[in-house]
Amino acid sequence: MSTARLVSVVVPCRNEAAHVDTFVASVLAQRLPDGVALELIVADGASDDGTRERLAALAATDPRLKLIDNPLRIVAAGLNRALAAARGDVVVRMDVHTSYADDYVAQCLATLARTGADNVGGPWRAEGSGPWGRAIAAAFQSRWAAGGARSRSLSHDGPVDTVYLGCWPRATFERFGGFDETLVRNQDDEHNLRIVRGGGRVWQSPAIRSTYRPRESLAAFARQWLQYGYWKPFVMRKHGQPASARHLLPGAFVAALALSAAAALLGLGALPFAALALSYALAVLALAVDAAARSSWTLLPRLPVVIATQHLAYGAGTLLGAWDAWRHGRGRERFARLTR
Q: pTM (2 decimals)?
């Protein structure tokens, strides 16, 4: 650690015994520029599946790995505790369920130097396994199924409103603060919104390469997007605005669908509900065909279900979160438990 520059890799983690050995090995094998060293700080959220014991054993054999506690068991708290322990002048966030190119950290450093941005990262690339996992990955990779999010574009090089994971000069946290521990989800989106609203820049580079492993079941995927939608209104309430207009659309659609369905059941006319449902079904089918053409046609039967699940779960979560944010100002306990 006596080289001129130190990079701190920070990782929130809970119950990852099946993946943690491979992950730690890949991080410690990163090809770094001359004069740069790396430390890996893992904030464990009270794992009870052997993860903590594996990390302790690995830390005993390599001084670059440091294990710290995250008693709150949420991502934002883990990140903040890792940041407090970090000694590097650059901080790179990583996730155990993502695999990384061996020059990932080097490309983060190069992009920071090239752009002078306050946060940089690569595109959010997904690869699934199993029939549902591959369909979820194909839908996930569709920028249009995600409402036009640039983070799904594998070729975009430029400013974005948010970026996958992140790499920051330490000065960014000194200027904009750490992560909001009241948010179980969307703490990264909120932090990036804070940066952009404060006059900073968030930059995406396709040279920063990683691959995310999405959920492999439709039920887990629905729970994930329900939580994403639920916590979004708390970000909006804090800042008085959404990070992007696309975050409002699923909630507005679910509300319109529910109201038109209620009107139809009350005998006030079924035409609005039928028109809305049919229009949405055609739109989902078009998105599914586009996603299948970009991935595999064998996924087409599952893609409409995956895309509709994502939209409807996110929208329903947004409406529920908006109610709780307005009525109570805090999230429900059941949504405060972060699950994979």
A: 0.81
